[in-house]
Design goal:
By secondary structure, the chain is mostly helical. It has two domains: 66 residues, Orthogonal Bundle (Arc Repressor Mutant, subunit A); 77 residues. It is built from six helices and three strands, in the order H-H-E-H-H-E-E-H-H. Strands 1-3-2 form a three-stranded antiparallel β-sheet. Strand 2 and strand 3 form a beta hairpin. Helix 3 packs across helix 4. The chain starts with a helix and ends with a helix.
Length: 168
């Protein structure tokens, strides 16, 4: 089963995605995916041997293929594997932004000297400045990364809808 999962290429994944909607014959899959019938049949047989696709031959003229539970779980797992890096990156960005904001809040506090110092020995001082490095740039970079990820997700969703309209 693991070897078959490694053998999933673009064509086989496209076949699995198409079969996720409904049952198809080889001719229908050929028309929907824009590939030749022998190519579709070759890949469908590999998917059938792997247990991802089931052949439905009920004595009629057409032989249909449908997705098995194993095939559905492979499609779900592929979605999860694609979302894991995005979720990890978003979590890291949120943690970095939180750390930067918290650190900036600590740095902006003013510190006063508690013991008495005669007025003439204290040099003239302007407005108090924050101690330490300024991490504002880190917050800006983090927000830009989050915005880029959101725009990329929107773009991919639009592209997916356009492809689905063209396929069906």
């Amino acid at each position: 089963m693991v070897q078959a999962e490694q053998d999933l290429n673009g064509t086989r994944v496209s076949i699995l995605k198409a079969l996720n909607g409904r049952k198809y014959t080889v001719s229908e899959l050929s028309r929907v995916l824009g590939l030749s019938k022998p190519t579709i049949l070759y890949h469908v047989r590999i998917l059938e041997n792997a247990g991802y696709v089931r052949r439905i031959d009920d004595g009629r003229k057409w032989v249909y293929y449908e997705l098995t539970n194993s095939g559905r779980s492979v499609l779900r797992w592929r979605k999860v594997k694609m979302l894991l890096p995005v979720a990890a990156g978003a979590t890291a960005l949120i943690a970095t932004a939180t750390m930067a904001i918290t650190r900036l809040g600590v740095q902006k506090r003013s510190y006063t000297v508690e013991k008495y110092v005669p007025r003439e020995t204290v040099p003239e001082v302007g407005t108090p400045k924050a101690m330490g490095a300024d991490y504002t740039w880190l917050l800006i970079v983090g927000l830009l990364c989050v915005a880029t990820i959101v725009l990329l997700a929107i773009y991919l969703a639009i592209r997916k809808r356009r492809r689905e309209k063209n396929i069906f």
